[in-house]
Structures are given as structure tokens and as C-alpha cells.
Amino acid sequence: MAMGAIVMLLDACSWAVAGTIITAKLARVDFLSIATSRSVFGFLFVFPAMFVLGAQADLWGMSFHTMWQLVVGGLVAYVLAEPGYVLSLGLLGLTRGYTVVIGLFSLFSYVFPAVFLGEPIGLQEALGGVVIIVGVYIVALYGRRRPLRVGEERGEPLASSGDHGPRCRRWLSRSRRRSGGGLRPISGGSGLTEAVAPGPSSSVRIPGTPIRLSRILLGSLVALLTAIAWAGDTTLLRAIADPFDASAVAVIQIAPGALVIALVLLVIRRGRVFQGAFTPRAGLVLGLTGAATTGLGTILLVFAIGEIGPGPVAVLFAMSTIFAMPLSAIVLKERVTIWGVLGAAVAVGGVALLAL
Fold it and tell me: Is a pLDDT exceeding 90 seen at residue 57?
């Protein structure tokens, strides 16, 4: 039992570290490039792992009915939810974006089985859901201080929205040149980016459309849809994946999603994958986060469930929101408030009520 808890805590830490790396890179690299790297490297990890674990017989033994359901769930999880997760970190920053996604995912992971699989929900589970929503609400609205603009700390006159000053204009010009063509990156919440980027209440354009929404509203909507997609896939796995080894299931799920999202990136970039700040080295670093979380994390999750059960696993994984907070403050220079810490603690408490 102790080994299962240790493994799950390591998995939670790896997700927090990966989220920190992703958020830092989002200042210059677009979310689709990051999501593609993570999905492709996730597949490159689980495919050989399946043979190392001797689970290939489970893959060959799956019925077509099981396979097509796993493929559909994988497309939702890796073509829609994975880019949505990365985009929510870019819009909200690590402190808020990560807590909102994980908190809502934990909530829907209990609601959906009750709705679609007939699993019962008692008073404790209902109370836990309310507590999670309260914690997520606190973090989303009050989790981070308003970012300082250039000159504010030194008491200098603030630049108007149309003029950041010569130094900021030079920095923005260099940043745009590094970002290259195609999709533009969205601020990931680092202190450097926030110094010149609009605050969380400013409007941003929905990628691929002319529609503009406030940053916090768009980020919250993306986080909500991401949590729904992930929880939907988790519910599907709970219903049909139990007889099979986790690595074989992961191969069926990740392979189609990684292929589709890679093709989408190739079409958008007209065959040139690496552009601007998205270099082969950046792709390798970001891909390793996918191998650690999407790949190895899936196998560790299944092992921990077998050792300590799904309830304690959910609580231990939700602890990753707590691990992410000091990383966001130290590495990304996000200005976390006491309300952010309190809200994350409340959300984890809600997960505990659901799981225990």
C-alpha cells in the first residue's frame, strides 16, 4: 500500500513539474505545437512499454467494438482535451489554470459515472462536488494578484495600452520574431511575459476565429471543456478497459490522437513543423513532459489504483495542485495570493470528500 501512495505522489509531482515547463514555454511557443509534442512522445513511450510489459496479447485480443470506442475516446482526450489543457495554462497561468482543470476533472469523474454508468452518488459526494466548485471559483477569480506593468514597481508613469515604451516595444518586436509564423503563442503567466502582456481581465481572440472574450472567461471555458473531455474519456475507460493492460489501452488511445494532431500541425505549418521558438530542442523538452505524464503517468496510475484503490489515488493526484503553487511562484514568478492557496486547499478537500 505504501508503494502505491509513493508512486501516486511521484505522478502528481511529475504533472506539476510538467505543467510548470509547459507554462514557461507558452510565452513563446504556441499551444498546438506543445500539445503535439506531448502526444507524440506519449505514444513513443507507451508503445515500447507495452512490449516490455508483455501486454501486446491484450492489444491483439481486443474486439473491434472495444477498439473503436477507445479510439473515439482517445481522439477526444488527445485532439481536443490535450490542446485545451495547454491553452488553459496559457490563458490563466499555472496557479489558476492547473487548479481549475484538475478540480473540475475530479468533479466530473464522479458525476459522469453516476449519470452514464449508474454508479450511486450519496450526500458526501454531493457535498464534495460543492466544495470543489467553491475552491475552483476562489482560485480562478482571486488566486493571482494583478500583474505589474512595466515601471509600476519603480513608481514610473505607466505606459498607455497603445504604447509600452521603447524598451517594451523592442522586447515585443524580438518576441514576435522568435515566435515565427502560424499560430501565435498566448502568455503563459511568467513574470517576464506579464510585465508587457495585458492582464487577465483583458480580451483575447479565440484561436482560429475573430471572436474576442475576456482572458479569464475564455480560459475558464477552455478549462471546463478540457475537464469534461478528460472525464468523459475516464468514464469510458472505467466502463470497457478493465480487462486489458493499461499500456495496451494507452496505445490504442494515444496513437490515433497523436497522428491526427500531428497532421493538423503539418497542414497549418505547410510541412514545416519547427518554426520560430519551436525548435527541435524545445520539442524534445516538451515531448519529455508528455512521456512522463501521458505515457509513464498512465501506467503508474493503473498500478496505484490496484495497490490503494481509486479513492486515495484521486486525493493524491489532486495534491499536484498544491505542488504546482510553489513552482509557479518560484519558477514562473506568478504572484500567488493567500486566496489561491486557500482555494487550492479547499478543492483538494472536496476531492477527498468525493474519494474517501
Answer: yes
